[in-house]
Amino acid sequence: MDLIARVTKHFEDSIRTKQESAEMLAPPVAVAIETLTNCLLAGGKILACGNGGSAADAQHFAAELVGRFEVERQELAAIALTTDTSILTAVANDYAFSQVFARQVRALGNAGDVLLAISTSGNSENVMEAIVAAQQAGMRVVALTGRDGGKIGQMLQEDDVHLCVPVERTARIQETHLLIIHCLCDGIDSLLLGVEE
């Protein structure tokens, strides 16, 4: 096994996925940036959720907003719904794992807030339940999915934003999701602060 060639192929595949996604995803990512920024400017907050690597992405996004991305600025209101083990285990135990995010959305979300819903397959039941709860609360949804968008792609409403990475391999979807998250953070800073570089 040639490990150098194997590693090089991962780099090449990741680059190709991002290049192929750029033209298709840049316009809806721009819409997502405006959606998130308008929410924050109106005094709203962003709730983020996902499972596994997508949970880490939700936490990464919230950390960049509450802390900072690349420039100093005020704290921005973002909460990762993936971090409170007492809530997650209590809800999973007392209700169902499908409700671990939805109950938090109903408890914390208000009309005008935004749910950042991340699922590489587009079929994560607990993320779908969170989307339903968000829509019922009058929140908009920015969904990051992959492949064909799965069931999440079908349940989004007209004002929601779907950012779907149209490849099959989970690793390539997640790598592109991370790039999208950085684009969202940079775009928010640009609109809020006039950052040009």
What does this protein structure show overall?
- With 197 residues, this protein is an alpha/beta fold.
- It has a single domain, classed as Rossmann fold, CATH 3.40.50.
- It is built from seven helices and five strands; from the N terminus they run H-E-H-E-H-H-E-H-E-H-E-H.
- The protein has a five-stranded parallel sheet, sandwiched between helices.
- Strand 3, helix 5 and strand 4 form a beta-alpha-beta unit.
- Helix 2 packs parallel to helix 7 and helix 4 runs parallel beside helix 5.
- It starts with a helix and ends with a helix.
Which properties best describe this structure?
197 residues; alpha/beta; Rossmann fold; five-stranded parallel β-sheet; 57% helix; globular
> How many domains, as an integer?
1
CATH class: Alpha Beta
Instruction: Please identify the structural class as seen in this structure.
Output: alpha/beta
Number of strands: 5
Which shape, going by the Cα principal axes? Answer: globular
- How confident is the prediction overall: mean pLDDT? 97
Backbone CA Rg: 17 Å
Low-pLDDT parts are: none
Distance between the termini: 43 Å
Fill in the CATH topology. Rossmann fold
The CATH homologous superfamily name equals Glucose-6-phosphate isomerase like protein, domain 1
How is the quaternary structure best described? single chain
What CATH architecture label applies? 3-Layer(aba) Sandwich
Largest sheet: 5 strands, parallel
Number of helices: 7
**Beta-strand proportion:** 5-15%
Strand order of the largest sheet: 2-1-3-4-5
> What order do the SSEs take from the amino end to the carboxyl end, as H and E?
HEHEHHEHEHEH
Helical content stands at 55-70%
